[in-house]
Records
---
Amino acid sequence: MKMSEMWTTMGSTLASFMFLWTIMRQYCPYGVQRFFEKCTHRIVSYFSPYIRISFHEYMGDRLKRSEAYAAVEAYLSANTSKSAKRLKAEMGKDSSNLVLTMDEYERVTDEYEGVKVWWVSSKVMSPTRSPMSYYPEQEKRFYKLTFHNKYRDIITESYLEHVMREGKEIRLRNRQRKLYTNSPGYKWPSYKQTMWSHIVFEHPATFETMALEPEKKKEIIEDLVTFSKSKDFYARIGKAWKRGYLLHGPPGTGKSTMIAAMANLLAYDVYDLELTAVKDNTELRKLLIETTSKSIIVIEDIDCSLDLTGQRKKKADKLSDEETDKDVVGRKEGKEEGGSGSKVTLSGLLNFIDGIWSACGGERLIVFTTNYVEKLDPALIRRGRMDKHIQLSYCTFDGFKVLANNYLKLETHPLFLTIKRLIGEANITPADVAENLMPKSPLDDPHKCLSNLIEALEEAVKAEELEQSCPIEHEELLQQNGSIKENGELPADQAMNQCQLRLCNGT
Ligand SMILES: Nc1ncnc2c1ncn2[C@@H]1O[C@H](COP(=O)(O)OP(=O)(O)OP(=O)(O)O)[C@@H](O)[C@H]1O
Ligand SMILES: [Mg+2]
């Protein structure tokens, strides 16, 4: 057969095939269409000297968005959006600028060490489950890279590595950090791709603005930074790249504020896990798999989240007298919010923290907060699970100086001496100090705010003295009054008045 005849035969075969294909697309069911698509691809790739690599947005069972896809997306948006003719515009970081990426079915070229490659962004629709299906069709997006066979080595060995590295760096730079939550009572529709809902994370707390002793602050910052740079170390010692922090202390001592400061220091996302809204251990695992790296998974008030404290004790102990109101409220909420109540168990939670699944993703902090560390099951907070225990306590003079600088822009003041003396004697939380330093009217100058704080400190000192002189009466009064604060304190003025009243009455 002559060369020209061969080309003619090939051309007409392809033309007939294309014609058939057009008809099929219009009239045939999805399965038949896919079959013909595959045949076309095989014929084309048999004759073509070009290689194609696809990067799909979701792989396999679609549990997680592909990191490779996201890196390609970032790389292309930074490097080739100038050459693309059809672009997609989206709000970028801080909603302050528009980010342009190539639109669907757009094709751009890129050059690497003199080699030309082509990228196409595309999508296919997955079939609906049945003709009556309620769920909409799912879009499966992907990028396709095309290059000549003779450059196979350079592309697969070095260009792709370059794309991934640059893409990841760009993503990190442009990342808009997010605060995720697994909303309580929220029914997860099966067509939805994630169990987490999110908003932009914009908490302003930093370690600089935290009232904490300087050495403690330095130690925590160093610990966090060392962790974030220890990928190779964790790989060498054969440990998953994650670290657990237990923050404990009375209410208002800055546990939640510290989580925000941690996230801001390391530029991590925050996953605020509401345990009472998690149906069972399987759902807990799904939630874990969906978290990304560079994130903090937070379980606040772990002692109240579920009945995790008493799992190893007998059932009868469950509602013992020792339990505080807060515990009971926590469990009640779990029952109500979760409808049937959460079936997450202690072993489920332990698996969540350091089971085999916990290693996926890497570079993650798990943070528990509690007001009552002594109530937690030791298994939950042993070293290795909760690697670092941080106790947050009452405000010190160093802490006060940070708050005075934050709230009043004061580094020194004649009243500081009095405050230094009183703050050493009183148990006052940073939250209370902050509240007193807050100007209450436009006329409140720094002197007035500091005087307010001195008043509050004097009351706290009196309450301390009272507690030490007649601890039983003090405790009884707190219980009778019902105004006991969560950390076991009664507002100083109330305690004083009531104790004086009792002493006067001789009771
Ligand atoms: N150490 C601190 N440094 C700076 N501000 C603080 C600190 N502790 C508390 N605050 C202030 O008090 C408020 C309450 O603090 P935060 O919510 O962090 O306390 P918490 O320990 O999480 O309390 P709870 O146990 O009730 O959840 C914060 O908004 C913050 O303004
Ligand atoms: Mg808190």
---
Amino acid sequence: MGRAEVVFPLSPADRGASRSADPGAPVISLRDGVLAYGDRVLWRDLRLDVRPGEFLAVLGPNGSGKTSLLRVLLGRQQLTGGSLAVLGRPPGSGSRHIGYIPQQAFQPTHTLLRARDLVRLGLDGHCWGLPLARRTIRHRVDDLLDAVGAAAYADTPIGRLSGGEQQRVRIAQALATDPRILLCDEPLLSLDLQHQRTITELVAERRRSAGTAVVFVTHEINPVLGLVDRVLYLAQGGHRMGSPDEVMTSSTLSELYGTQVDVVRVGGRIVVVGEPNAGTGHPHDDGAEGGESQ
Ligand SMILES: Nc1ncnc2c1ncn2[C@@H]1O[C@H](COP(=O)(O)OP(=O)(O)OP(=O)(O)O)[C@@H](O)[C@H]1O
């Protein structure tokens, strides 16, 4: 697509305070993680190290705890058990280093907030410890909107935008602080194929140039298959983790679900057939990973 690249330099404070001496050290480190709501255990014994520049795809059926995992990483949900360090600190303490694209929520149509205002909110107005000039902020906001293909409606109230257009603005907002970790909750939902590619390429570029670690919750592995280093697959209170070739197999998923699940590869795409609990109102009610449109 050749979209503008949006990379902002790290401030000295960023490099110092929370950047580890070892540049390859995990930015997320979870040990013996357990998450339960009452008696219901979503996942247990979760051990997870995510390193700079790594792309972790989180898959699993509705209700398996994918969003909850992101909430744990953000410090908005407490672990039931285990320990977690994000950028070497307890979760929730380094939020400006974390970009978060929440699961899609539409803005009310009457909101007067413009697309550029929403992105502006993602900036804290400071860089290198100094306040940013208004013109600098404006340029940064313009660059971010341009990078996600949203420049044309920068001044449109967000409530008047379509779901896919709103989604692009939210992605620009999540990138505003040049995050070291990007947490994405189904960011491609509502996007047409062209804009899925735009966003996927943007995320890929950020990993390469800025070493941003990406945790990407999705029901659609195919649009990001070329980027994925590891898959974390959550289901039935358990999980499997490894490369796509290790996890996305009939034997691994059948073992995880405790029933026959078939994983087939067609034209470089992965299709999961017979995945239980995948027919609960999600876009892929046939239980197949990676719908036909990808
Ligand atoms: N604060 C909470 N208290 C109790 N139950 C909760 C809470 N938050 C989430 N749940 C439940 O935990 C389960 C996992 O929710 P979560 O949103 O993490 O699933 P998910 O894997 O992201 O699902 P989906 O694919 O549908 O987005 C759901 O059944 C949800 O209703």
